[in-house]
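Quick one, probably user error.
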């Protein structure tokens, strides 16, 4: 899937309405649209990373890609748990993500049909795009959010995201295993 990475980035950067839904709790109504959007995209992105990581653990051809997928799965479980604990403390529910969740499920469906080097290529390419978009999302919250606790969460999590981005870029630059006998993708 040549354009899977672009699709991941596009999904990550889609703007949700910017308005807090009418059915949102009182605490959520006090959040700025930036903060509420950040919560929604982070919550959805964590689940995408967990689901795609689990696929990578099973479908990847290269050990380095499987290792990265395991890191994404376990790391984003922790990041999601931290987000949910913060939201519980704030008495805020994440916004509904039906439209974007459908797009992510489609991307997961594409990856689920692949194995070996084809999976490795599409997964790593999508991870580079995703991690760039995720980095931008967290920097956007740090610069534009109004809730101090969410901004602190974003600042604390950003180094982990940047590490994930660097690792994905290293995987993407590795020579193809079919050409050299090493590296996950071409």
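Nope, works fine. Designed sequence:
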């Amino acid at each position: 899937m040549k354009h899977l990475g672009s699709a991941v980035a596009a999904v990550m950067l889609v703007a949700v309405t910017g308005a807090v839904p009418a059915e949102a709790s009182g605490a959520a109504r006090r959040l700025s649209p930036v903060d509420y959007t950040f919560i929604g995209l982070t919550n959805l992105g964590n689940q995408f990373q967990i689901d795609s990581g689990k696929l990578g653990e099973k479908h990847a051809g290269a050990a380095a890609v499987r290792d990265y997928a395991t890191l994404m799965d376990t790391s984003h479980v922790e990041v999601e748990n931290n987000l949910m604990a913060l939201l519980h403390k704030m008495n805020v529910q994440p916004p509904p993500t039906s439209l974007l969740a459908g797009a992510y499920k489609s991307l997961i469906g594409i990856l689920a049909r692949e194995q070996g080097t084809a999976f490795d290529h599409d997964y790593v390419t999508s991870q580079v795009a995703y991690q760039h978009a995720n980095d931008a999302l967290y920097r956007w919250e740090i610069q534009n959010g109004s809730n101090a606790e969410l901004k602190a969460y974003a600042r604390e999590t950003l180094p982990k995201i940047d590490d994930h981005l660097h690792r994905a870029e290293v995987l993407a630059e590795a020579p193809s295993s079919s050409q050299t006998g090493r590296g996950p993708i071409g």
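The CA atoms of residues 13 and 136 lie 9 Å apart.
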